[in-house]
Design goal:
Blueprint (H helix, E strand, L loop, with lengths): L2 E6 L4 H11 L7 E8 L2 E8 L2 H8 L8 E7 L14 E2 L5 E9 L2 H10 L9 H16 L3 H10 L3 E9 L6 E6 L4 E4 L4 E4 L11 E4 L4 E6 L2 E6 L4 E2 L3 E3 L15 H7 L1 H9 L3 E2 L4 E2 L2 H4 L2 H6 L3 E5 L1 H18 L3 E5 H4 L11 E6 L5 H12 L3 E6 L5 H5 L2 E4 L12 H21 L4 H12 L1 H9 L2 H11 L4 E6 L4 H15 L2 E6 L16 E5 L6 H13 L3 E7 L5 H4 L2 E5 L8 H18 L18
Parallel strand pairs: 18-19, 18-20, 20-21, 21-22, 23-24, 23-25, 25-26, 26-27
Antiparallel strand pairs: 1-4, 1-10, 2-3, 2-4, 5-6, 6-7, 7-8, 8-12, 9-10, 9-11, 11-15, 12-13, 13-14, 16-17
Helix pairs in contact: 3-4, 4-5, 7-14, 7-16, 10-14, 10-18, 14-15, 16-21, 17-21, 18-21
The protein binds fructose -6-phosphate.
């Protein structure tokens, strides 16, 4: 949710920041802008639209500066426009600021400032915070750093802010609470960004800034302080990421690249953990809490969006294999509804970004009440990963396509390993079942590769239905969450209205939608519910719906009821979701492309939702 980049050093700063903004565009792309300190003051350039519009707009302008801050926006306060784009300039014209997050108590502060004669050029909360800082600086005749510290003590909400002052061509002041900030340490230069992707090209040494810390950054110096003005020791970490991982590598879109990476990313996730020959699964983070988890009275899974769908699959699997009651909660509901959380409850937080604001606050609340928090997170070092007592990374690598694909299968792989391990430890599954499930899970990378060979066939189906107005996705049991995920992917990427439903529940309402124009995708692979799903297909067929079914090889009945079929390799029903989702990802990708849409940056979305 908004990407921020900063540079101070010996290079020309604008090209570094512009490139960084392009890498962070997945976080928001309503507008973008930069501010540079130049000999005659601050130079601001900002433009509605994607970063490419800013780049175009900047041609021919004076871009010379060795210090620059830049922002790519996902609008919260105020429509996407040049006026609301960041950076903002303080009324005095002395300070420029960019912000990722939301200032919740901006209204009373704005009222105070208006009384003092301030006027505002935008509808943003950011401009309010900026003028508040400027006002404090003037009233207290203090440094910018001091003014930021005083201001932030009064701020409620989430922020990562970067500021530059017109008279200081070296220093960036940065601060964060709830929105991420990474600082890259170079020789005589520093880089700042919302994640490491703009930095990796220049240095692998980084510092993840903590909540309530202020950083004072010059080319040769990085000072970290807390809001009490006490110096903090920066914890320098080495990035485990390669530049190639954040480039398209010959694919036309990140989404397609990430779909095709899944045999490798799932393999990476299982590697060194799933050890079928040794009859063992090692999840070292979680092993420390094994006794508490097996003794838990219940598990609560907290997540949003696609990660929530992974949680639903986990609910079915954990209840089946471990006989522990599981509740799956939308983080945004859980955090506000005064839920009952008791000491010893186990919470699993699932998040690709590790920065989703609702999930973060929900687990903070649960942690305060004594719950054990396990994180299933993709981004290493992210806020949710750090807040969790223990956890397991999904190791899917950097996911840039806004619609989550490889992170989802990484989440499923981790959650399956957890469930197998827990069930075996509790004695609710036998050693034979544990071994069989482990062995089958190890075949997934190869089976996913086989599914991907059918890309052309899926594309042909996509072209056939790309003009449909609505889609229905149906599945039962372990495949019900996959139906939800298929529908979500289609909505995000193609803007076609799609609903996911339990196949049997469909006759309690959505069946009214069915006619000869409605494509209905059945996730109908062979499992304990298969015959029932076939009956549901009959019900759709009888009403002339167009049936696209995802089936298991050897199924001879489903094709007779279907208009189109995608045939998948056989696998245990518990593991099947990992494979069944792949054709649904491809289907939405190809429909989006057929409609001429930007599949990597669907409208209105952002990859990392750091506002509630
Ligand atoms: C869908 C998608 C979103 C995210 C959701 C949670 O493709 O990407 O629904 O799954 O915003 O994000 P994370 O997993 O980062 O917490």
């Amino acid at each position: 949710m908004c990407g921020i980049v900063g540079y101070t050093g010996f290079r020309q700063a604008y090209p570094v920041v512009l490139k960084g903004l392009k890498r962070l565009e997945y976080r928001g792309y309503d507008s973008s802008g930069v501010a540079m300190v130049q000999p005659d003051g601050l130079a601001l350039l900002k433009k509605k639209g994607k970063v490419a519009e800013l780049e175009e707009f900047a041609i021919g302008k004076n871009l010379a500066s060795q210090i620059c801050i830049g922002h790519t926006r996902w609008a919260t306060h105020g429509e996407p426009s040049d006026r609301n784009a960041h950076p903002h300039l303080s009324q005095s014209g002395e300070i420029a600021m960019i912000h990722n997050g939301i200032i919740e108590n901006y209204a009373p502060i704005k009222a105070e400032l208006i009384k003092k004669g301030y006027t505002f050029n935008s509808d943003t909360d950011t401009e309010v915070l900026l003028n508040f800082i400027d006002d404090i600086k003037k009233e207290n005749a203090c440094t910018l750093e001091e003014a930021v510290r005083i201001a932030l003590k009064r701020i409620v909400g989430a922020y990562c802010i970067l500021l530059v002052h017109k008279d200081d061509p070296e220093t960036i002041i940065a601060a964060r609470k709830g929105s991420p900030l990474v600082i890259g340490i170079g020789k005589g230069e520093h880089f700042l960004a919302s994640d490491a992707s703009p930095i990796i090209e220049y240095t692998k040494e980084v510092v993840y800034v903590n909540d309530y810390e202020i950083a004072i950054i010059k080319p040769d110096e990085l000072i970290l302080k807390n809001l009490g003005n006490e110096k903090q020791t920066p914890f320098v970490q080495k990035l485990d990421m390669e530049l190639a991982a954040i480039e398209k590598g010959g694919y036309p879109h990140f989404m397609l690249k990430e779909i095709f990476e899944q045999p490798q990313t799932i393999f990476d996730c299982l590697r060194g953990r799933l050890l079928p020959q040794e009859n063992n699964i090692i999840l070292s983070g979680i092993d420390k809490y094994a006794a508490e988890i097996t003794a838990a009275n219940r598990i609560i899974i907290i997540a949003c969006g696609t990660s929530w769908h992974a949680g639903l699959v986990a609910e079915y699997i954990i209840e089946e294999l471990c006989r522990i009651p599981v509740e799956v909660e939308y983080a945004s509901e859980f955090r506000y509804r005064n839920p009952i959380v008791q000491k010893g409850d186990v919470i699993i937080a699932i998040s690709q970004s590790g920065e989703t604001a609702d999930t973060l606050v929900a687990i903070e609340n649960a942690k305060e009440k004594g719950a054990i928090i396990l994180g299933v997170v993709n981004v290493v070092g992210s806020s949710i990963a750090r807040l969790s007592h223990a956890g397991a990374y999904t190791h899917a690598g950097h996911e840039i396509g806004v619609a989550s694909t490889k992170a989802f299968t990484g989440q499923l792989a981790v959650l399956m390993m957890m469930a197998f391990k827990l069930g075996y430890a509790k004695g609710t599954i036998s050693q034979e079942r544990f071994t069989q499930l482990s062995q089958e899970l190890s075949t997934v990378p190869e089976k996913v590769a086989k599914v991907l060979e059918q890309d052309d066939a899926v594309k042909a189906i996509a072209l056939k239905y790309a003009d449909a107005r609505d889609f229905l996705y149906l599945g039962r049991g372990y495949n019900f969450p996959i139906a939800l995920e298929g529908a979500l992917k289609l909505k995000e990427i193609s803007y076609i209205h799609a609903e996911g439903y339990p196949a049997a529940e469909m006759k309690h309402g959505p069946i009214a939608l069915v006619d000869e124009h409605l494509p209905v995708v059945f996730v109908a692979t062979k499992d304990s519910f298969h015959e029932k799903v076939v009956s549901n297909m009959q019900e759709i067929k009888a009403r002339k719906g167009k049936i696209i079914s995802i089936i298991t090889e050897g199924d001879e009945v489903s094709p007779t009821l279907s208009d189109d079929v995608i045939v998948l390799p056989a696998i245990d029903e518990i593991i099947a979701p990992l494979i069944n989702v792949i054709p649904l990802q491809l289907l939405s990708y190809h429909i989006g492309i057929a409609k001429g849409l930007d599949v990597d940056k669907p409208r209105n979305l952002a990859k990392s939702v750091t506002v509630e």
